[in-house]
Amino acid sequence: MRDVASNEHSRKSYMPRDTSLKSVLVLGSGPIIIGQAAEFDYAGSQACQALREEGLQVILVNSNPATIMTDADMADRTYIEPLNVEFAARVIEKERPDGLLATLGGQTGLNLATQLAEAGILEKYGVRLLGTPLEAIRKAEDREEFRNLMKQIGEPVPESWIVTDESQLSDPANAGIWPLIVRPAYTLGGTGGGIAYNRDELYEIAHRGLALSMRRQVMIERYLKGWKEIEYEVMRDANDTAITVCNMENFDPMGVHTGDSIVTAPSQTLTDREYQMLRSASLKIIRSLGIEGGCNVQLSLDPKSFRYYIIEVNPRVSRSSALASKATGYPIARVAAKIAIGMRLDEIENAVTRKTLACFEPALDYCVVKIPRWPFDKFVGADRRITTQMKATGEVMAIDRTFEGALMKAIRSLENGIIGLSNKTAHLLSDIEIEEALRVPADERLWAITEAFRRGMAVEEVHALSDIDPWFLNKLRHLVDIEMRLRSNGTALVRLASDEKSEDLAASHPLAVKLLREAKLAGFPDVTLGSISGVPELKLRSLRNRLGIVPVYKQVDTCSAEFEAATPYFYSCYDLEDER
Amino acid sequence: MRALLVFQDGSYYVGESLGAVGRSQGEIVFNTGMTGYQEILSDPSYAGQIVNLTYPLIGNYGINDDDIESRKIQVAGLVVHHCEDKPSNWRSGHSLNDYLAENNIVAIRGVDTRAITRHVRQKGVMLSTITSDETVDEALQRLSKMPAYETADFTQVVTTSEPYLWNDQCSKPLTYDPSAGKIANRRIALLDCGVKYNILRSLAKYGCETVVFPCTTAHAEILECKPDGIMLSPGPGDPSNLGAIVETVKHLVGSMPILGVCLGNQILGAAFGSKTFKLRFGHRGSNHPVKDLKTGKVYITSQNHGYALDPDGLRDGMEVAHINLNDNTVEGLRHKELPIISIQYHPEASPGPMDSSYFFGEFMRLIDQRS
Fold first, then answer.
1. Strands A394-400 and A552-555: what pairing?
2. Which domain holds residue B184?
3. CATH code for the part of the protein at A416-553
4. How many angstroms separate the CA of residue B269 from the nearest CA in chain A?
5. Average pLDDT, stretch A159-170?
6. Which of A4, A345, A560 sits opposite B32 (nearest CB)?
7. Which of A229, A165, A176 is nearest to A199 (CA)?
């Protein structure tokens, strides 16, 4: 009998396929701006390391010295210069790199690569653009080209029309698709737009929009109110092997930028059929675009049928890729860099297990929650509503075995003074204001929801106002429910904490012990438990130690423990086995 | 109610009862898929096994009437970390807990499923029991008297008792009338060792009607339905118990195109001289990379098997066509001359990725080339 578990994959000596490549120019992402922040430093650093591992000389250009990628040991040569054609051309002239890697520097790197190609610089110095071809990038980013491509491959995009004259409104009006969202082009902050539920409203809003638009142009699109927003992180190599690294489900339905939404990984409310339907669509898209590397596909799914639409494709490593990398342990930027120099997914080692290959799909055995971090504490007068234009300047991510645990950890990680289910203002709002806060997405909607539950609102009512999936709402309802039980059982918990004599606390205080265990499993920190129940925090902690309700640490291993993992990446949880 | 999961090696886990109260026993295995618990529950290949799901939040989207892969729940038992009692999905009709209880399946929740997976990975699959009315010692006593998983022929338990027909008009088996001729473009005879409905649905999508035969059917009776192709289904248990079916298949070889899937791949391998060996913890999940040796392409596949083919014994023109990139085991065979192809993974997906559904098309090509 053979023992397959010890039958490790035969390790090849990994050599770049493309042996003519000796040196590669990597473009960084420049200054940190909203939507393009430290995640590109993370991606660029990984790429520099991945290329040097393969024996390539790495030349880096980045204008931002406050990055890890510009540290002395990341690249062979580092230029801290402006990311524009003039300076990049001079670096190319001096260094004569064989290849240029631009898909890891966000939009800045991608734009600069396009400009260098268009200016003839790449051709002049014989520099090859590595990874995804420019043509593919253009196809993904040009609205009309992308829509045409989707039509060709049979993937649905939301119906939309560009209207410059009221006579053109008959098309959308007769399409039989309601509601429609009307957005005037070239107005400040989208003023003059609106949602039309019928023909009359469409004409009225479009009339107003055309008048307000500087170019007399409005865009009309199917309004996917309440639809789920789902993302897939996809990778493809030059041999057309394609995989999905991770999928993610937004807590906030359509209408909130994914960078401004609370996000879970993996998706929580999709059946396998829905999951696979959207996965297959994402793979079809990355193949049709011809991307070599990573790509992010955003889709919208009807919560009441199998209908879906492709919303957007990012043909490069993006903010979501950084999240997906941390969420799964799969190093997307590293693998994308290796694909760019001609390696195939089945030639790249899975750096976490060191036994399997990069050509597999991570299986998570935990729940990941991301919460955006907005700068509204610094910009007091700013409009705190969140819509389709991203306002967050950062994000936090937490891992646990339950959604509740991960959410509670993520809230504490925000470091905005909120440590649990209450912010400083929601309890001051009137019932009508709470309903408004549920209906209109804003940065603190999470705490309006918990306040609504405290006031006895039903999950169905909160769902009707917010369109947030009842699964997420039931989790928040569960947390509020624990909070309320902790309050009403405060005396029992105080009695438990003061019981110095009992040999078997669980037997003498069964309900209080059970509640304490449930609260810890759901992520309540000791400080909150203490303030709600009336037991001092330190006393509560020693009580937990006596009861053995202590966290254990589990490994993020990309494979749900199917294989042994080598990297020390852990998260805490209240479960049985500690893996440290 | 408190429940125990007790392993043959004496290790045990304390959790809460899920589904029916009582006792269930079987070989403990783990599946790493993040979705698809309903399909897993009704997959006949899990007969005789207690399935530990590694994803910790199970039951989120409930149970619906469509995503069922056979006539009933087939697993012996189920192990989950957290079971959602308030599911959310437009098709959901029941919660997982209610569904298990109504179908009398004894399951357990609230245990450290990752610790269980690590244990099975290190020690290998073994007999185990879920129990709510025994001590650990009593459960171990009972387990020690249980016959080994390898000794039972589970295909006899899960196969259909009578032949039936499946076509693109149906979502359930139809009565098979041997005197009625074929209506669809192609007729497939399927030897049922534990077929999943999505295999029949997939064949129907390709314009096939399928006659499903009990796995004990003789080759002459199978050929009487005048099929255009033969399919050998997936199924549970140790393939080395299936000598009689291997003999039937030997008689069918050469008569027409054959497609083998999962257990069907192992039966075909056996018909061409190969033997199977037991994997320490099997392949069960939706993320297994398989390489097509001819094209070099890699597919992400849905897998559920505890045994693998030893390629060394293969003879009479059969060769390895696919391998698993995690452990290099055989994942598919191809005959050098005859129209015979087979794969160890699941082209029907359900659950899992649909990357390999093209394989049904390959089978159709072999059929159409011949006629």
1. unpaired
2. 155-370
3. 1.10.1030.10
4. 17
5. 92
6. A560
7. A176
